[in-house]
Specification:
alpha+beta; GMP Synthetase, Chain A, domain 3; 2 domains; three-stranded mixed β-sheet
Length: about 180
């Protein structure tokens, strides 16, 4: 039985949870090479028990349901190695046991946004984020009265045919050969 993690988490447990989250995220991304762990795997939060015995790691996996369960199994199998990676960084007497849990909050958020987007389209309205993208595309595609500051092909060809000049715009002095 795992120790209970209460809602009124101490500041030290919270700081330790954030530190474990950042170290584990880096380790999963850069040190684990398990093919069962997809690239779109992220740690959403880490809850540490008051006695630092257990750290519940909530993981979000953007994949099909069987792949998600396989990812959590792979992470649980790699828990020993991940604890060894945590040990030099945490400077604790005992390193918490890692328990990986599947977190559906990001997936549910995406699904909710898709439902809202679909409902707005049925009403004949364009979602606000899409209107902003269209305005940005129009601004980028339309004629610009202001120079962009980056040379284009016409600037380069003009520069190649003009006589060399000094920075002040005057012709460069002719060199005697």
């Amino acid at each position: 039985m795992l120790p209970a993690i209460e809602n009124n988490v101490s500041r030290r447990c919270e700081r330790l949870g954030h530190l474990i989250r950042s170290i584990l995220a880096d380790a999963i991304r850069n040190r684990l090479s398990d093919p069962r762990i997809p690239l779109l795997t992220s740690i959403t939060r880490v809850e540490v028990s008051d006695d630092f015995a257990v750290a519940r790691v909530h993981v979000s996996v953007m994949a099909a349901e069987p792949q998600r369960k396989l990812c959590v199994t792979a992470l649980q199998k790699a828990a020993g190695r991940l604890r060894r990676i945590l040990a030099p960084e945490l400077r604790l007497r005992t390193i918490p046991s890692l328990v990986f849990r599947l977190d559906d909050s990001l997936r549910q958020g995406f699904e909710t946004l898709a439902v809202i987007d679909h409902a707005m389209r049925e009403l004949g309205e364009v979602p606000e984020w899409e209107r902003e993208d269209a305005d940005l595309d129009a601004a980028l595609d339309g004629p610009s009265a202001e120079p962009t500051g980056t040379p284009d092909a016409e600037d380069w060809s003009r520069a190649a045919t003009e006589e060399p000049s000094t920075p002040g715009g005057r012709p460069a002095p002719e060199e005697d050969a």
